[in-house]
């Protein structure tokens, strides 16, 4: 059994539930996608070099959004979950330059799976599932996989610097979920109200954008 197989993401129903509830459980998700597109438009659109790598792609929503900015981009989507990749393939049907790779981040660190450079590497809400050591290694690999002048955008949850801020962020998150449930007419305690992500023992707070470029 691999590291990935031991996680909830290896269970098809877990991913299905995330996709069903993501607009409720992820704070400002729509806004986050708009910022992603704005970043891509500003930094990449006119460069003409747009080989994209989507790490932990889920159902391919990030790549799908980027294709609305540049329908000519080529994309490689990586996820440990076969069920998620199947959904991504369905969502991206009709786009030709799409390559889906089933591999965990741990597999990528062990073997040279991709064997190509990318101009834009993106990830959202996936890398925090790794341990600190694995994250460091993955960021090193991302650097190696980036072409000169390429960009890396990681949209993810981070640990708040103080308990007071942590409490505030938790409250903000719960308020968001309640507001979204109310606007969708959802009553009662659904799984969108599930407790915070504590994978690897890390308590994490709502989403941040972390970017870097290779020059
Ligand atoms: C919260 S979902 C995010 C999906 C998508 N990026 C989005 O924003 O909607 C996390 C994704 O990361 C994948 N994932 C989690 N741990 C992983 C690992 N160690 N290696 C590869 N993929 C992983 C899961 O299968 C899942 O599709």
Describe the protein in words:
This protein is α/β, with parallel strands linked by helices and 215 residues long. The protein has a single domain (4-213), classed as Rossmann fold, CATH 3.40.50.150. Helix content is 41%, strand content 21%. The protein has 7 helices and 6 strands; from the N terminus they run ααβαβαβαβαβαβ. It has a 6-stranded mixed sheet. The longest helix has 21 residues, at 163-183. The radius of gyration is 17 Å and the shape is globular. Bound molecules: S-adenosylmethionine. S-adenosylmethionine is lined by residues 4, 7, 9, 15, 18, 22, 56-58, 61-62, 79-81, 84, 104-106, 124-126, 129.
Provide the fold topology.
Blueprint lengths: L11 H14 L3 H15 L7 E5 L5 H9 L4 E6 L2 H10 L6 E5 L2 H6 L7 E7 L7 H14 E13 L4 H21 L21 E9 L2
Parallel strand pairs: 1-2, 1-4, 2-3, 4-5
Antiparallel strand pairs: 5-6
Helix pairs in contact: 2-3
Bound molecules: S-adenosylmethionine.
